[in-house]
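Weekly puzzle thread! Below is a chain. First person to post its structure in token form gets bragging rights.
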Amino acid sequence: RRARGEDEIAIWQPPKIWRVALQLEAFKPARRFTLPMPGLIFICQMGRPPRVVAAKRRPSSLNDEVYHAPLYNVFTDGSTCPGTHSYPADMSEIPASFFMSFFTRDASFRNRSRKYPDDLLPLWEELDGKKKFPLDDLVPFGHVKDLM
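Winning reply:
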């Protein structure tokens, strides 16, 4: 699809384990995590920060449900805060680039987890080193058609 006169594509990332860094305090070392994530949908434009939502399985219909991504740096509408991170022109590289950037407590981090609705940190601490994300913890966002 075209948005703001530019091509926009959706990239499905199946559930996998991602290595992430969370910067909790300026000028202090980041905390490192190895986190299982649910399937993620990245809505990408060349060189721009993506929008990100989660899904329990790869969507096949506009009416399939999607969920808030259990991630920092993501706003309520799924848009992301890039900070100083630059995104690649090759849109297929944007998901990996997103996870290579430092996460901070910017954007919105509330209501990303049913178990921990006020902050993601306890969820990330609980999931660190685990193999699978608990899909029943995902918070509804809407449907695939809401992303368009």
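Puzzle host: Confirmed. Bonus trivia for everyone else. The mean pLDDT is 90.
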